[in-house]
Amino acid sequence: MTETTLYIVRHGKTMFNTIERVQGWCDTPLTREGKEGIRHLGRGLREIEFAFAHSSDSGRAIETARTVLGEHLKGKEIPYSIDPRIREWCFGSLEGGYDKEMWGVIPRVLNFKTPDEMFTTDVTFEQIANAVYDLDTAGWAETYQTLRERVWNGFEDIAHHCEKHGGGNVLVVSHGLTIAFLLNLIDEKQPVRAGLKNGSVTKVSYQDGKFAILGINDVSYIEKGKELTRDSFL
């Protein structure tokens, strides 16, 4: 059986990414810069053989997936589906506020003086999820256990589905914190602050029910797409 490899893409840069506002279950479209970056990504990935493609149900992820598939040599032939389980974390009543405000209050809830102090310790995703849950006044944020189950089950089902159909490569468009969380679930040594860039590719393999991390935050496909674009104008 061929090994299954997930090419997990963080969606393109959005309006809220640009003005540094909290964007979990709330959604804003890709900016002009974001669209251009994903077009380059699509060109960089255009020759990779994908058996399937998936994205979260957020508009920014759908737009990213469709743009990548639109640039792919066989994009119209790749089965594409939407899975709400791989969407971003829900930040409840903190949604839409400034990033600095949310990441300013979460450390205080966890008894840290600053975000940097928090991130340089062994703070866990569970602690952060619990802090968000406690801070949310709307009652929308997920418990850590709910969050863990949906993210793990979502990615594992995507991988298992491909494995069941002979394996191969799968394009998956998800979100920064969700991808970082998955990496930590695979390997608890992976840091909470992953710093994943918009349009970056994180690769994980899946075989016989086990994930393995192959690469993180790879922007080489974007650079390759830029080169292909420049060459087409020469």
UniProtKB/TrEMBL annotation:
> Which Gene3D superfamilies is this protein grouped with?
Phosphoglycerate mutase-like
Extract the Pfam families matched here.
His_Phos_1
Stored SUPFAM superfamilies: Phosphoglycerate mutase-like
What InterPro entries does the entry give? Answer: His_Pase_superF_clade-1, His_PPase_superfam, PGM_Phosphatase
Taxonomically, which superkingdom?
A: Bacteria
Annotated PANTHER family: BROAD-SPECIFICITY PHOSPHATASE YOR283W-RELATED, PHOSPHOGLYCERATE MUTASE 2 PARALOG
Its protein name is Histidine phosphatase family protein
